[in-house]
């Protein structure tokens, strides 16, 4: 077990390092730079002054030097200095935004699983009934409709016909839980709906496969109640592929949260990264992507380790 986790951690470090290099090269290929954004349209400097300021910001250094300087700041915990906001480190801005995204993603994941697993079980147990057909159509809609499109439809038609208004100011859960959940429940449902669709169909498929196994017939022959057979025998074995899917959808969960944060005006990592891209704040973008990639990799590692808890027959080598 320990050697397995260690190998996965080494692989995770390689993936994160590769992501950082790719993102660094991509963002530096964008037109413009942070200095032009910082000066704005009113900035009137001669070429010599512009070059001097770029040198002070480190923008004139070769790309490999800029990358190594940024990596050095990773190890001191600052992730570098924001190129736009004076006296603001990248890590301080991430620490302000990350709790918003984590809360949003956890609520959406919990909502998606609360929708997917019960409906998937009902669809399998009542195969080819009207409930099965309705649930399958519902899941097909979730797969077919992009989350950002659903979010846009909710904002437009919710505003026009149902009196919905985007929250003007974000309220943290620790400050006012009621206001926080009131502002978040609609985007949480939008993201959870998209996540639940695939999990719902997979739960149905794995449940149907497990229901046909010999151990299920044996359990029923012993006189166990149907609910006990479903929950203790069938569902636990059927959940392993679903847990794998959750790990594989970690990137979809976070990317969906980032997009919906911009749409619903939440000050999370999505909003932070979106503004940083517009401002060409290179160090901020690199830090945001690095943190997000690390979270995705760790989620996949946790999912792999959880297999042994769900199914004791699984052994790590």
Number of helices: 13
**SSE class:** mainly alpha
> N- to C-terminal separation?
7 Å
Poorly predicted runs: none
| CATH fold field value of the largest domain | MetI-like fold
Shape: globular
How many discrete structural domains?
A: 2
Number of E-state strands: 0
The CATH homologous superfamily name of the largest domain equals MetI-like
Question: Taking all residues together, what is the mean pLDDT?
Answer: 79
State the assembly state of the protein chains: single chain
- At the first level of CATH, the class of the largest domain is Mainly Alpha
What's the order of the H and E elements?
HHHHHHHHHHHHH
Tell me about this structure.
The chain is mainly alpha-helical. It has two domains: 89 residues, no CATH class; 214 residues, MetI-like (MetI-like fold, Orthogonal Bundle). Helix content is 77%, strand content 0%. The protein is built from 13 helices and no strands. Helix 1 runs antiparallel to helix 13, helix 5 crosses helix 11 and helix 7 runs parallel beside helix 11. It is globular and about 85 Å long. The mean pLDDT is 79.
Task: Please write out the topology.
Blueprint: H1 2-27, H2 34-39, H3 47-57, H4 63-75, H5 90-125, H6 130-144, H7 147-161, H8 177-211, H9 214-221, H10 226-248, H11 250-264, H12 269-279, H13 282-310
Helix pairs in contact: 1-13, 5-6, 5-8, 5-11, 5-12, 5-13, 6-8, 7-8, 7-11, 8-10, 9-10, 10-13, 11-12, 12-13
């Amino acid at each position: 077990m320990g050697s397995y986790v260690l190998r996965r951690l080494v692989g995770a470090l390689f993936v994160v390092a590769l992501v950082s290099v790719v993102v660094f090269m991509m963002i530096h290929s964008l037109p413009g730079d942070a200095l032009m954004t910082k000066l704005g349209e009113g900035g009137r400097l001669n070429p010599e002054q512009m070059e001097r300021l770029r040198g002070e910001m480190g923008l004139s250094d070769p790309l490999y030097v800029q990358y190594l300087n940024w990596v050095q700041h990773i190890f001191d915990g600052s992730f570098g200095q924001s190129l736009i906001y004076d006296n603001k480190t990248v890590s301080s801005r991430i620490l302000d935004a990350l709790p918003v995204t984590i809360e949003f993603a956890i609520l959406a994941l919990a909502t998606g699983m609360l929708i997917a697993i019960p409906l998937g079980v009902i669809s399998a147990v009542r195969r080819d009934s009207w409930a099965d057909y309705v649930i399958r159509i519902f899941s097909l809609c979730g797969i077919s409709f992009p989350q950002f499109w659903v979010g846009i439809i909710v904002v437009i038609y919710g505003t026009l016909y149902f009196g919905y208004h985007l929250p003007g100011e974000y309220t943290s859960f620790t400050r006012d839980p009621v206001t926080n959940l009131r502002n978040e429940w609609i985007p949480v449902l939008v993201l959870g709906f998209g996540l639940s669709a695939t999990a719902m169909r997979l739960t149905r498929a794995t449940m149907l496969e497990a229901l046909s196994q010999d151990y299920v017939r044996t359990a029923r022959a012993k006189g166990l109640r149907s609910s006990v057979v479903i929950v203790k025998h069938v569902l636990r074995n059927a959940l392993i592929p679903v847990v794998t899917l959750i790990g594989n959808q970690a990137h979809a969960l976070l990317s969906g949260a980032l997009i919906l944060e911009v749409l619903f005006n939440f000050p999370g990592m999505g909003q932070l990264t979106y503004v940083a891209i517009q401002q060409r704040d290179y160090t901020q973008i690199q830090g945001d992507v690095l943190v997000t990639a690390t979270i995705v990799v760790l989620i996949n590692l946790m999912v792999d380790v959880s297999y042994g808890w769900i199914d004791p027959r699984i052994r790590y080598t």
